[in-house]
Specification:
By secondary structure, the chain is α+β, with helices and mostly antiparallel strands. It has one domain. The protein is 31% helix and 19% strand. The structure holds zinc ion. Zinc ion (ZN) binds next to loops.
Length: 72
């Protein structure tokens, strides 16, 4: 077993797959976190596919937080 640098393109799939509450896309929470594309609202963490969605969520979080509440 070699101990080489982890290939960031092949990181093991994260269990944390969230749903972008704005556009509904599945989002890898780990990747979103690294890209500063997560936000917390009402004790829940939301991950976004991009800054545009994050900005829309932050502008009116309650609208999207309620809409995305069905997600596991
Ligand atoms: Zn999105």
């Amino acid at each position: 077993m070699t101990d080489e640098t982890v290939n960031t393109a092949e990181v093991e799939t994260s269990d944390e797959i969230g749903t972008d509450p704005v556009c509904g896309m599945p989002v890898d929470v780990e990747i979103a976190r690294e890209s500063d594309l997560v936000s917390e609202y009402a004790d829940r963490q939301y991950a976004f596919c991009g800054r545009a969605c994050r900005d829309r969520f932050l502008a009116e979080p309650i609208a999207y937080a309620i809409a995305g509440r069905d997600a596991p």
